[in-house]
Protein: HRQ family protein 2
Organism: Aaosphaeria arxii CBS 175.79
Amino acid sequence: MPQLWLAVIISVLWVVFRSIGKRRALAQSILETEKPNDAKEDAYYQIEALPHLDLEQEEPIKFRPFKPKYHLTMSIENSTLSDLVAMDKTYASRIALRQKLIEEEGTNVLALNPIVDPAVFEFYTWMVETYLPTRFPTVYTLTPAGLHNKVTNLHLPLKPTTSQSALELLGSNVDSDFLFLLPPSTPEDDDKYRLQGFVTCFPSGFSTLKKLGMKLAEIHTPVPNYSEKMEKSMDRYFANLPIGKIVKRANWTITTHKRLFCLDGNHISEADRAALNDGLPPPSADDEIDIDQTVVRCERQTLHRLPNTRALVFSFKTYQYPLRELRDEGSGEMLCEAIDGLGRGNVPEMKVYKRAAIWGDRVKQFLREGV
């Protein structure tokens, strides 16, 4: 009998402690889902200032993201919201080019669907009232009437009349391109984000307009093996990126021209691909690659989520580095190995996709022999 009572007491205590454990877990869950939200949103207002930035003396960032084997991965690293925008001494000339492109190219550089309006306004307000004047006080000054750009002498209103106007103002005053991706609006979309608005003055060989409204997988259709190697992880990462976190990455390619605004030609065409498969010279092959016009093109990319609309903002700033610069600094052999590595990683087709099958040998010859 005592053993029976002991068993009963142990069972009752187990139920009680289990109940207490569940309540504690629930309480902890509530704390983690409520209080940290405030802390995460605080990250958008804890911007580190650069009070002594001198644009005329600030050199552009030098990216050298070259690896002996190219693997198609996200390759992201954590960053801070302070690091969202990078500025340097090319700012004035590039802003002038951006303003010209926005005026002349229309929807090729700026377009949006109405569903993105709240996200655009949210991002614009944060950029104008908080981020830009806090991070770059030597360039932007917040006044009761709006944000004053000391370089262009333009004033950005606190409340733009339309979302398109907001994107035009951002695109004309910040040397970064911004794309807005919204979470699914219908249950059928599952966790698939869609591109619903953009200002991209420096696309690298693609039409952003043609991708408006598309899901991530549809946007990346031309990328070899994207569906097999990246689609699921990208969709999952975009769906779960928390408020207050920002990540960054860098990519690279080589172009035989210096056009920052480029709607096509940086990737392999179907005609070129067919010719290469048949062992023939590609129709668009450069008869004589001009080394002085050939550059390494890198993008500094970031991704973060807006706290209220929960839209994702993908941004990138484009850098160009002359081949002579890389050769003279001693990075030539590393770049040669990376060019060969395009065909040695987990997606060998990348060598063709990036047109390295066309420009690769000539570029390596210059880097190694100087001719």
Observations:
- Residues 2-42 form the longest helix (41 residues).
- Residues 41-369 form one domain.
- Residues 1-36 have pLDDT under 50 and may be disordered.
- The chain has one domain: 41-369.
